[in-house]
Amino acid sequence: MAKISLEDLKKIKESVQASVTLREGGYRAKVNVHMGTCGIASGARAIMSTILDEIAQRDIKDVIVTTSGCAGLCSREPMITVERIGEAPVKYVDLTPEKMREIFVEHVLGGKVVEKYALAVGSETTF
Amino acid sequence: MATKVFRSHILICAGTACVSSGSFKVRERLEKELKDRGLAEEVKVVITGCNGFCAEGPIMVVYPEGIFYGKLKPEDMPLIVEEHILKGRPVPKLFYKEPVKKEAIPRMKDIPFFGLQVLRVLRNRGLIDPESIEEYIAKDGYVAMHKALTQMTPEQIIAEIKESGLRGRGGAGFPTGEKWEEARKYNRFPKYVICNGDEGDPGAFMDRSILEADPHAVLEGMVICAKAIDSHEGYLYIRAEYPLAIKRVNLAIEQARKYGLLGKDIFGTGFDFDAYVYPGAGAFVCGESTALMFSLEGKRGMPRVKPPRSAEAGLWGMPTVLNNVETFANVPQIILNGAKWFNSLGTEKSKGTKVFSLAGAVNNIGLVEVPMGITLRSIVFDIGEGIKGGRKFKAAQLGGPSGGFVPESLLDTPVDYESLQATGAIMGSGGIVICDDSTCMVDSARFFTNFCVDESCGKCVPCRIGLKVMLQKLEDIVAGKGQEGDIEFLEDLGRHIANMSHCGLGQSAPNPVLSTIRHFREEYHEHIRDKHCRALVCTPLIRFEVIEEKCKMCGLCYKACPSNAITWEKKQPAKINKDLCTKCKSCIRACKFGAIN
């Protein structure tokens, strides 16, 4: 194997960075998928997989995904709450994987609220 | 390149303490649950080195929330996976509970045990997988080594270490930079770098935990030292009773070699260095530097007279730097962040942080890293959260068999090399054993002296015979055969052993006795004159009588006695029949009112 260089160290560091970010709390946005029984029954699992797929494909390091229980509005599940650091959280309802991809690009990464899918600004505490 | 993304990381502590309390079983069950629920692709389970809070083991921290679960059982896993991982509801019943107020604290950073610590040496503990070099690199691993090899001259490295004020963490506190400078001076080759991981003090587990949690940091420190003194070969002498540490260090060496971070022409600089693990020979004395080197050479581990110091003539008679695990683990961060960053913490003569293993009668047993200069009281009562079972603090034993006991009145002593020495204890490698009021100081002194008698290598007379005489005297005292003059005799003999022994171990072996006499002289008097042991430890000095005024007639002693030696009826004080009594002390342990003496 060729001699390792400082550049190589940096490359390794970057590729493992996602783990470190997650454990240190240095992230720019949090996507909370509501996974109560109602959420799971109406397809929250597919929403979750979509988010993880987007993160993996785009090689995003600083977006974290959490889960929470029923948000109380079972008829509008699957729901998510998107929270960018320093901004008010936004709830999205009646999601499908396609809508999810749109929200991910527009809001999570782009910072622009996708009003047509949004329910309200504000959040219950997830913990 | 796209790496696999996990939405949650579950870090399970796999330090020796957690492994023995069952963390591997917890992990197995967790992985099975995750798989059964189809979450294995979303949630990553990471095995880490010692998290530090050993009393709460097995420990698990769930990220990104940073929720801390302790004292886990495999049966808890379905609940955690179902509630927390799947539905996002942390499980309060498994949170850490603060011992005094019993409040549940979910987040690791809010638990006082963690909140008051300053993590430098242990910065990666419980945070990275010690078996993955990539995770270490992600935490700026090997960048300091790169800086040292490519941008610094050996003189600059030594100057930086000297300026930092780093002193040997093995206990004696010799300035590390000076040691390296001395070894650099001699133009005889090959030179060697040795890491002393033969941690032998009872109750000490700092080095083990560092090697288990962050082995690459130690290797990196060794390479930097090697560059400074122009050495190309190093050994890690690790206690053979630390199989997990040995395994992880060996793995780390293999990984580093694969990446070209050990071996020939590191970073293309033309600098060669390789390291090897040598499992310790199993004797306490092999932690002494010269004995350790003889042991490495395949000879019997016995200290020799110094000078010449190891820096001049060490392993195979060649210039050698021998430092403790924790010392090496400090080095990369000094090189990376600078001497000023390092010595911004600490006291005038003791800089940086120190890792302690906190054990004994304290609520929070574990591994702690604190800035030099913090008081012992803060370690025991803030981080340790006081004494178990509501008992009273009696003494802190520092530095193992070479150390001493610090009484309550000196608890405000700042932790630095000189202040601790003034109390009669030593910094030592960092073992702190807390004693509550059920500990007999005379008996503890006897225990440590017995340890030293067993472990004396036998080379020099004061240690080999002097300690034996000391032990006999102590055994007489705890057996009720003490006489006037014994205390003075012990003091006199202790001073002789300290002055005339060959190596550091013999010189410090009387410390436990001398420091208990110094701080708890009245207890020795009680044993000798009154034939009384206030802690009710020394069986021959216990009368096994019920104090009628204190007896609440509850009958607990009666129920506890295995030899039916106690008679008791309701509303009558208990009585002990001495003919039947086997002196097993079950009644003393059972009595809640201290009514038996």
Give the helices and strands, then pairings.
The complex is a heterodimer of chains A (127) and B (597).
Chain A (H helix, E strand, L loop, with lengths): L5 H19 L4 E6 L2 H5 L2 H15 L4 E6 L11 E5 L5 E3 L4 H13 L8 E4 L6
Parallel strand pairs in A: 1-2
Antiparallel strand pairs in A: 1-3, 3-4, 4-5
Helix pairs in contact in A: 3-4
Chain B lengths: L7 E6 L2 H5 L2 H14 L6 E6 L11 E4 L3 E3 L7 H10 L9 E2 L6 E2 L6 H4 L17 H6 L4 H9 L2 H11 L11 H10 L6 E6 L8 H8 L1 H15 L3 E6 L4 H16 L4 E4 L4 E9 L9 H8 L23 E5 H13 L1 H5 L9 E8 L5 E6 L4 H8 L9 E6 L5 E4 L9 H6 L8 E6 L4 H15 L5 H18 L7 H15 L3 H5 L2 H9 L1 H10 L25 H5 L5 E2 L7 E2 L9 H5 L7
Parallel strand pairs in B: 1-2, 7-8, 7-11, 8-10, 12-16
Antiparallel strand pairs in B: 1-3, 3-4, 5-6, 9-10, 12-13, 14-15, 14-16, 17-18
In short:
Chain A has 127 residues and is α+β, with helices and mostly antiparallel strands.
Count of runs of 4 or more consecutive helical residues of chain B? 24
First-residue to last-residue Cα separation of chain B: 73 Å
Contiguous low-pLDDT stretches of chain B (5 residues minimum) are none
N-end to C-end Cα span of chain A: 48 Å
**Class inferred from helices and paired strands of chain A:** alpha+beta
> What is the helix tally of chain A?
4
Strand content of chain B: 5-15%
Helix content percent band of chain A: 40-55%
Largest interface summary: A-B, 44 and 46 residues
Q: What oligomeric state is this?
A: heterodimer
**Secondary structure tally: strands of chain B:** 18
Q: Could you give a short account of the major beta sheet of chain A?
A: 5 strands, mixed
Task: Provide mean pLDDT of chain B, rounded.
Answer: 92
Strand order, largest beta sheet of chain B? 9-10-8-7-11
N-to-C order of helices and strands of chain A: HEHHEEEHE
Strand count, sense and barrel status of the largest sheet of chain B are: 5 strands, mixed
What Rg of chain B is obtained from the alpha carbons, in whole angstroms? 26 Å
